[in-house]
Amino acid sequence: MKHPKFVTLPEISKRMSNIKLKRGVAESMLAKSLWHHGIRYKLNYRALPGSPDIVITKNKIVIFVDGEFWHGQDWENRKQKLKSNREYWIEKIEENIARDKRNDVLLKEAGWTVIHFWEKEVFKNLETCIDSILALLPKNFSIQILPKNTSGHQLSMVAEPLATSH
User: Fold this and answer.
1) Which domains does the chain have, with CATH numbers?
2) Closest Cα to residue 39, out of 24, 19, 57, 53?
3) pLDDT tens per residue, range 114-156
4) Which helix (H) or strand (E) holds 121?
């Protein structure tokens, strides 16, 4: 849907132009933490609906880190507080919410596990977010973190399934 142009102040225009759509701070924090836990992934994977922020292809897990405003957190209350360009923003955010729901359905139908985190949730509770992702990995998945070398740097990390006895 094409949105109508609206008149805005130069300060607002400058602020809006600085908003990153991909690889925001919260998304990067989550991705780096997953990497340090030995989880390998793809970023902004365009082959899937919605171009998920983080995709763990091996385990069919997709992760979205959603901005509270753009994706409508507490939307019914928040939209009442909109003052400038009210009609534009209501249409835009509701369109985003509907698109997110459509993409979630398509991903689930294709066998993917879909996780959404709010940006503030990642900032405030990164380890809780990581734990909820790790809980979705197979039970035979282990994370082996090797000891640090003499300079204090971690030598490497290996994440692999545990050997199972038959």
Assistant:
1) 10-140 (3.40.960.10)
2) 57
3) 999 999 999 999 999 999 999 999 876 655 554 555 554 443 3
4) helix 119-124
DSSP 43: E
d(CA 37, CA 130): 9
pLDDT value of position 163: 42
**Sign of the C-alpha dihedral computed for residues 38, 143, 58 and 100 taken in this order:** negative
Q: Which tens digit of pLDDT belongs to each residue from 12-31?
A: 555 545 555 567 899 999 99
Among candidate residues 141, 49, 55, the one with its CA nearest the CA of residue 99: 49
Could you tell me the sign of the dihedral formed by the alpha carbons of 106, 109, 113, 117, in that order?
positive
Q: What is the dihedral of CA 87, 78, 9, 18, to 10 degrees?
A: -110
Count Cβ atoms below 10 Å from residue 64 Cβ, excluding itself: 20
d(CA 115, CA 104): 9
Rounded-to-integer distance, Cα 53 and Cα 29, Å: 12
The tens digit of pLDDT for each residue in 86-103 reads 999 999 999 999 999 999
Q: Side chain identity at 94, as an amino acid letter?
A: E
**pLDDT value at 1 more than 80:** no
